[in-house]
Amino acid sequence: MIKINEIFYSIQGESTRAGIPTVFVRTSGCPLRCNFCDTEYAFTEGSKMSLDDIVSKVAEFRSDYVCVTGGEPLVQKEVFELMNRLCDMGLKVSVETSGAYSCEPIDKRVKKIVDIKTPGSGEGKSSLLDNLEFLSSDDELKFVITSHDDFDWTVDFVEKYRLTDKCTVLISPNHKAIDYKWLAESVLTRLPKVRLQLQMHKFIWPEQERGV
């Protein structure tokens, strides 16, 4: 059984799969409290579902793409088996994780989208650096930028660990805290091998918090 907050069908708003119609399986529960969290409702809300029921619900949407998100999905150990089963169905599965839990048990067929928490997140010490060893070239690392200091820190981190040689690196602005133009210009001049991303769903459905 997995505690699920919501299962819905929408446009993927982030990552290299942005724009693709996707089924989202949002799990409940997260021990982190990032300053910019936009899914606080998933901290505790939800109900238990069996793996069979989750898989059946996902299949109803007839989508090739599934994103397991949260909350923090890896808190619940049954999530690993869920991802295995979704992959066995021939679906293109991704998981969005805070990076605070080991990614080693994740099926290699799953695209991992792993946060590296910046100091401005308030959870800068939560990222497990060991996860860098479990990344493939198909995986992605995401940095949410909340300030100029966060960007400077990110530049140093990306260069120190040669992250653009490992996988796709995503730079995302805190939706209401950073100037998009400044961030774009900073990426152009200082991090030319990363990918700047905006949360597409927040522009399409600016007043809608859930189900997008």
Protein topology:
Layout: E1 2-11, E2 21-27, E3 47-49, H1 51-60, E4 65-69, H2 78-88, E5 92-97, E6 111-115, E7 140-145, H3 148-160, E8 168-173, H4 180-190, E9 195-196, H5 200-204
Parallel strand pairs: 2-4, 4-5, 5-6, 6-7, 7-8, 8-9
Antiparallel strand pairs: 1-2, 1-3
What's the SSE pattern? Answer: EEEHEHEEEHEHEH
Query: Biggest sheet: strands side by side, in what order?
Result: 3-1-2-4-5-6-7-8-9
Radius of gyration of CA atoms, rounded to a whole number: 16 Å
What is the CATH architecture annotation?
Answer: Alpha-Beta Barrel
Please give the largest β-sheet.
9 strands, mixed
Low-confidence stretches: none
Q: How would you characterize the overall build of this protein?
A:
The structure is a single chain. With 212 residues, the chain is α/β, with parallel strands linked by helices. It has one domain (2-204): Aldolase class I (TIM Barrel), CATH 3.20.20.70. The protein has five helices and nine strands. It has helices at 51-60, 78-88, 148-160, 180-190, 200-204; strands at 2-11, 21-27, 47-49, 65-69, 92-97, 111-115, 140-145, 168-173, 195-196. A nine-stranded mixed β-sheet has the order 3-1-2-4-5-6-7-8-9. The longest helix has 13 residues, at 148-160.
Could you list some keywords that capture this structure?
TIM Barrel; alpha/beta; 212 residues
Quick summary:
With 212 residues, this protein is an alpha/beta fold. The chain has helices at residues 51-60, 78-88, 148-160, 180-190, 200-204, and strands spanning 2-11, 21-27, 47-49, 65-69, 92-97, 111-115, 140-145, 168-173, 195-196. It is built from 5 helices and 9 strands.
